Amino acid sequence: MPALRAIPVSGLQGRINVPGDKSVSHRALMLSALAIGETRISGLLEGEDVLATAEAMRSMGANVSKDDDGVWTVAGVGVGALAEPAAVIDMGNAGTGVRLLMGLVATHPITCTFTGDASLSRRPMERVMGPLRRFGTQFTAREGGLLPITVIGAADPVPVRAEMTVPSAQVKSAVLLAGLNAPGETVVIEKEATRDHTENMLRHFGADVVTEPWPSGGVQITLTGQPVLTATDIHVPADISSAAFPIVAALITPGSDVTIEAVGLNPLRAGLIETLRDMGAALTVENERVEGGEPVGDIRVKAGALKGIDVPPERAPSMIDEYPVLSVCAAFAAGTTRMTGLAELRVKESDRLAAMVDGLTACGVTVRFGEDWMEVDGLGGAPEGGATIAVDLDHRIAMSFLVLGCAAKKPVAIDDAAAIATSFPGFAELMNGLGARIEEVDA
Ligand code: S3P
Predict the structure, then answer these.
(1) How far apart, in whole angstroms, are the C-alpha atoms of residue 114 and residue 17?
(2) How far apart are CA 384 and CA 404, in angstroms?
(3) Does residue 394 line the site of ligand 1, with CB under 6 A?
(4) How high is the pLDDT of residue 351?
(5) CA-nearest residue, atom 10 of ligand 1
(6) Which residue, 240, 289, 302, 372, is the most exposed by fewest CB within 10 angstroms?
(7) Residue 56's beta-bridge partner residues?
(8) Measured from the CA of 167, which atom of ligand 1 is nearest?
(9) Active-site residue flag, 69
(10) From its phi and psi, is residue 289 left (phi > 0), alpha (psi between -120 and 50) or beta?
């Protein structure tokens, strides 16, 4: 796969649409595969991660196809009726895909083996297996709880009450999806609320899911097991985690004025918007509306002066995937930006905290860090750039440094662009359409 380089430009301009939300897309395919009838999904992200989930659902008996009009149709099998896949399921780079699927199959009387790429194969899976074992599910995993993993689904599952030990929507979702085929009530308690797309979509398909406040800010979620899920149309909003890249690119590239249309603004995902506003960003949300059950809006950003801030740690779950590109933004702001509560960044597609520290330092930015925090000394203008960044199979690290290169003093290259296709196919072309200069270079 080619290496890419971003050459500094000025004045990004235009209105764009970014691809569909990755979290919502995975869930749409999984729940429609369990529903009775045909679900039509528009706006599905056709990134590699989501295509792996589509393939997995096919291998378990669902009929998944794409129509000529770009809408996907899924004919489901019904809760409890997933078929045993005939082969190992390769989930590539997709952490959400594999963790949610482990939950989905955990209470079906089938055996499934999951594998993934080098990045996914070093990510912790015990956080999912622990609560799922309590349903009666058995696992064999590589040393340290790593993929490849074989799931032996519980033939006679019992419902579970699980308190989350890490703020993870993936773990929560795995438990709820397992609860679908367990009798009685499955309960999840989150001390810090995380994205609630699973709960929203379960309700959309007709399941009984009740979310109540939990003392000191969290939530308790109760799912009544063995519902009949009924096929329904789904519209996937544009992914705010993808929109984050052109948003920050426009903020830091002088003379820019960019609008990203119909971006999903679920409050449990939109922490970046608040944070950028705290930094003084000229960012407005226009045309706010509800589409397919999720709030969406057009985000307009203009380049301008930014200031360093302290980002509150309690905001982390609502912007966990945006810290890499936020730290790029912080490098251009005047003053220090302090980000805390970042422990989860260490176990994403790469160790994102280490990747940002190393990459920013290579680009001439002063960064201090600890196990779960990072401080970026903003330059109040463009950092030097001029580095080539090893992206280590991490799409968000790749895109973050290309964004930095759009506005640095010297071009910034990434060693391998392949990972970008997991979540944002067409990223470079879309950015170049705004006036960026992201081009292939010899690796
Ligand atoms: C996701 C949850 C987050 C996020 C990931 C998508 C999801 O992971 O980083 O990109 O769709 O549930 P964790 O739940 O592990 O924090």
Answers:
(1) 33
(2) 10
(3) no
(4) 98
(5) 321
(6) 289
(7) none
(8) 16
(9) no
(10) beta
The pLDDT score that the predictor gives to residue 293 is 78
For the record, the structure tokens of 96 come out as: 């959400």
Is the Cβ atom of 168 under 6 angstroms away from ligand 1? yes
pLDDT for res 292: 76
Look at residue 283 in the predicted model and tell me its pLDDT: 98
| CATH code of the domain in which 400 resides | 3.65.10.10
- Check pocket membership of 321 for ligand 1, CB cut-off 6 A: yes
Give the closest residue (by CA) to ligand 1 atom 4. Answer: 321
Ligand 1 atom nearest 171 alpha carbon? 14
| The predicted structure's pLDDT at residue 327 | 98
- Structure tokens given for 79: 């809760």
CA of 169 to the centre of ligand 1 (A): 6
Calculate the dihedral angle through the C-alpha atoms of 56, 147, 241, 405, rounding to the nearest 10 degrees: -120
My answer on whether 28 and 177 are in the same domain is yes
**Of the residues 235, 270, 292, the one at which a domain ends:** 235
The answer, yes or no, to whether any atom of ligand 1 lies below 6 A from the CB of 29, is no
Among candidate residues 235, 262, 277, the one where a domain is terminated: 235
Check residue 186 and give its pLDDT.
98
Same domain, 293 and 174: no
Residue 166 has what pLDDT? 95
pLDDT at 59: 98
User: Cα 159 from chain centroid?
Assistant: 28
On whether both 144 and 230 belong to a single domain, the answer is yes
Q: Is the CB of 174 under 6 A from ligand 1?
A: no
Which residues are CB-contacts of 52 (< 8 A; sequence separation ≥ 6)?
A: 90, 91, 92, 94, 97
Number of structural domains found in the chain: 2
Same domain, 260 and 198: no
- Assess whether 327 and 383 both reside in one domain: yes
52 phi, psi to nearest 5 deg: -65, -40
State whether the beta carbon of 190 lies less than 6 angstroms from ligand 1. no
The Cα 40–Cα 180 span in angstroms is: 21
For residue 98, what are its two tokens?
A: 């594999």
* 100 CA: nearest ligand 1 atom: 12
Domain extent for 166: 22-235
* Nearest atom within ligand 1 for CA of residue 198: 12
Which among 21, 298, 321, 416 is annotated as catalytic? 321
State residue 291's pLDDT score. Answer: 86
pLDDT at 354: 98
